[in-house]
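Sat 14:20. Reprocessing the chain from the morning session after the first attempt stalled halfway. Input below, unchanged.
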Amino acid sequence: MQLTIDGHTAFCHTGDHPFDPALPTVVLVHGALNDHAVWTQQSRALAARGFAVLAPDLPGHGRSGGPAMRSVEALADWLIALLDAAGVGRALLAGHSMGSLVVLETASRAPQRAAGLALLGATFPMKVADALLATALEDQQAAIDMVVTWSHAPATDPSVADAARDMMQRLAAGSSEALLHTDLAACNAYANGMTAAAAVTCPVVFVQGTQDKMTPPRKAGALTDAIAHATVVTVVTVETGHAMMQEAPEAVSNALLAQAERLIS
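Finished this time. Tokens:
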């Protein structure tokens, strides 16, 4: 589905079902140098259970036009505009990695739009190593290889990591800027996480991979503690890293379905 926001095309995958804003809606926001494809299995599972699904490509990513946005705050404002353009009043907002910060900030800025949050691979602060930031600017291919290595658990099927690398390379090739650096720098600079967390009143679930090296569960403690009513779901069906939607697709789909059915059915 294509929408128009600020004169630019915004593409959303809808789980292979026509989008109906009258249905309870789940919004799935991807992370750095990703696009809607990381949510393919979860989008289809949610749509098959009767939910309307919006899995957008963020600006400058995939099929969405416009320049990539350089801050989590700007992305949150864009997400609110996306809800407006799609005719969605309230939704379960789910985000992975950078996307988790975007939906957290969105819920803080527009609490009436968030029926609940699902934060996957979330931590705050989401600091990025100086070496990775520098490499992402100077040698994006090398940085992609670093991210792919760190995002997958050792037991993950190599084909899963290869597919992730192919996707990131495709997105990088389609951009005129060092898109991975832009995204990682936005995560690194975001400073409003604790304030946003303290303001959240809707139900929140954290979904964490046991072998996540990018956003380790042990570093998410400050954020989970700041949301006293949050629950934590640990994906333990396999050794699961940061790329949990591909490494454990059924477990992640079930966690999202449980939150969606609890909140918005």
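The mean pLDDT is 95.
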